[in-house]
Write a structure and sequence with these properties.
Elements (H helix, E strand, L loop, with lengths): L2 E5 L8 H15 L8 H9 L3 E6 L2 E11 L4 E9 L8 H16 L4 E6 L2 H10 L2 E3 L8 H5 L7 H6 L8 E5 L2 H18 L1
Parallel strand pairs: 4-5
Antiparallel strand pairs: 1-2, 2-3, 3-4, 5-7, 6-7
Helix pairs in contact: 1-2, 3-4
Bound molecules: coenzyme A.
Amino acid sequence: MDVKILTAQDIHQHYAEEICHLMEVSAHERKTGIAKRSPDYIRAKMATGNAIIALDGEHLVGFCYIETWSHGKYVANSGLIVAPAYRKIGMATSIKKAVFNLARNKYPEAKVFGITTSLAVMKINTELGYKPVTFSELTQDQAFWDGCKSCPNFEILERNERKLCLCTGMLAPSKVEMEKDLSHLILATNEKQ
Ligand SMILES: CC(C)(COP(=O)(O)OP(=O)(O)OC[C@H]1O[C@@H](n2cnc3c(N)ncnc32)[C@H](O)[C@@H]1OP(=O)(O)O)[C@@H](O)C(=O)NCCC(=O)NCCS
């Protein structure tokens, strides 16, 4: 096995159908909701360098993409998928790390967030520094929440006035915020000495 974690490009567009198929099969198996993504949507993410793809030679290993919301105040990571044959060996962890770095380097002013029902994703996010938050802390951009319309749990989200649903919201500070916190910490440590 020789897995490469790459920023997806146009040359990867032929994987879009397989990615969507994997997403649908896994949502069906888990019996949890998921916002449906079309191959065209996935291809657009690849074309703009807003996605990470993992490949073992020509074999698709996994995928995840990012998208900005609230005029660049937030960047979401979504659509994480690892092919069944490559699960439980740290692939999602590597893909999420790469996606987190992509989000922060490309959009340093944006807070990074995701919504998930997956324990594995919660674990990975926690390691990366995300904190669980209520949906009120996430983007209020209607277009983001419209993405949940294709999820079978959308009615729950609506019933709760978009304040909560079965997904947990997880938020990490922007790169700029983190660097500010770090410099304050260094300053405070230096003052103590
Ligand atoms: C969820 C998913 C992405 C995990 O991928 P993976 O490559 O197997 O994950 P990793 O090997 O990097 O594991 C990360 C952590 O999650 C744990 N984990 C992995 N799968 C798990 C599962 N099904 N249930 C609970 N924990 C799980 C691992 O043990 C590891 O924890 P550790 O760091 O404490 O050892 C993969 O199972 C998948 O594609 N599922 C279907 C799609 C999906 O659920 N996507 C997320 C939507 S938000």
